[in-house]
Write a structure and sequence with these properties.
Layout: E1 2-4, H1 5-23, E2 34-36, E3 42-44, H2 47-52, H3 59-79, H4 83-99, H5 105-126, H6 133-143, H7 148-161, E4 166-171, E5 178-182, E6 184-187, E7 204-207, E8 210-214, E9 217-218, H8 221-233, E10 238-242, E11 244-245, H9 247-258, E12 264-268, H10 273-287, E13 291-292, E14 309-310, E15 313-316, E16 321-324, H11 330-346, H12 350-365, E17 367-372, H13 377-400, E18 402-404, H14 408-421, H15 426-430, H16 433-441, E19 458-461, E20 466-469, E21 476-478, H17 479-498, E22 501-503
Parallel strand pairs: 4-17, 8-10, 8-13, 9-11, 10-12
Antiparallel strand pairs: 1-22, 2-3, 5-17, 6-16, 7-15, 8-14, 15-16, 18-21, 19-20
Helix pairs in contact: 1-3, 1-4, 3-4, 3-17, 4-17, 5-14, 5-17, 6-7, 6-13, 7-13, 8-9, 11-12
Amino acid sequence: MIKFGDEVKERLLEGINLVADTVKPTLGPQARTAILQGNPPVVINDGVTIAKHVSHEDPYVQMGVQLVQNLAFKAQSKAGDGTTTACVLAQSLCNSLKALEISNVHEFREELEKAREGMLQALDEMSVPVEGGDKVLEVATIAANNDPALGQLIADVFSFVGKDGVISVEEGHGLLTEYELKQGLELENGFISHLFANQDSGECILEKPLVLTTNKAIINFADLLPSLEYASSQSRPLLIICADLQGSALSNVLANVVQGRIQVGVCRAPNHGDARLDELKDIVSVVGGKLFSNEAKDDMKIIDASCFGSCEKTILNQVNTTIIGGIGREEEIQERVDSLTELYKSANNDWIRERLTTRIARLKGGVAVIRVGGGSSVELRETKERLDDALNATKAALQEGVIVGGGLGIIQAFSHLNSKEKLHPMFTDVFLTPTEVLLENADADSKLWDDIHAEEMVGFNAKTRTVENLWDAGVIDPVKVTKSSLSAAFSIALMFLTTEVAVLLEE
């Protein structure tokens, strides 16, 4: 079946509104919760989790639902937070577009793109770096829904691992939420196929895996078979870090994984050429074992126990691979850090220095493992999801700085841009939406709008339900999260604007 024109937009908009209205009550410190079907039912206020469970029986409406879900999830994966803001902004944009009589779609598309790029630039210009332990603690506490204990834990963890550090969150077995530091690192590549995923979350988690490391592209299954047989004989999963996995090697490994014969995760080694070889040596220093290299003409069919590295845990997803608790000797890792530091001092190329800085930080930082405690499975899950969001928001703030929160930063960015570019009047109402939702969720009097002055940092503090200077009150948002939310909302609006036909595929 095929639908055209206004009918398409009406059905899509119904789906967009459905997702946004479902997650809207979860925005801000006075947020409500949603209850998800389960045994027991799950009470939650995490926007991305709630949005994932929204559906509609009308397939054309469902297209609108999925449009928002997919792009909002991209906002989440990029910045770790901001799904709800992305949804409410997208809803406001799309409803405003539907209400307009747009004669030239392509001209208005340019207007949307101009607004998006201008807003992102304005937010970058407004950004204030997060520096000092007190500021990190403030940001972390706000990100943790104003939970001082959780905020302190997050601040402590980042003080050890740094702004680019690796943090893993697990379910604990006690009442307390605690953390410990382990040797480990994060690689910039995830699994090479989603078929390696062994969790409902879409991740591939390997407990106490053997680690096979090589700069070879593995094509023939015969080259890999001895390693798989050895891992199977030891009843251990196998993590393979290689230049690539192709041909019969890939198809046979996937067949064994899908059939449940062995647990395997495969990721591509970072970088290329000599740089790849150097970074693989970094990895081996952390996990131990042997590096099978083309340069040494190593035969992967000849293996023994010494050929494999090991670690406590490996987590692979579509984006990256995290190695936790490598068995490498601390002295060897320190020697490698010292060697890289000397190379950095003599480097005369910015790109080389940047890569060396990344490699040094990766080796020095290790991995912080947070084990979440709780009195029940429901409490544990709620705390874990809140902690995940708070960690992501804090990391985003440390990476790209912060702006005033309470929706005021978005209003300020628009005001600055509009004074120079004179955007379409519809944007005025659109960028007020986050603040409007915060007022609504706090059951605040709409008359409070009269006291809000964005340029003076005076806005609505949803926590205290008062109008005050939000910057002085510590109400702030990570710039990275805000930018990600805006980008996702504009992407949804652009697709909505230019969609004229919906085709329902026959099953």
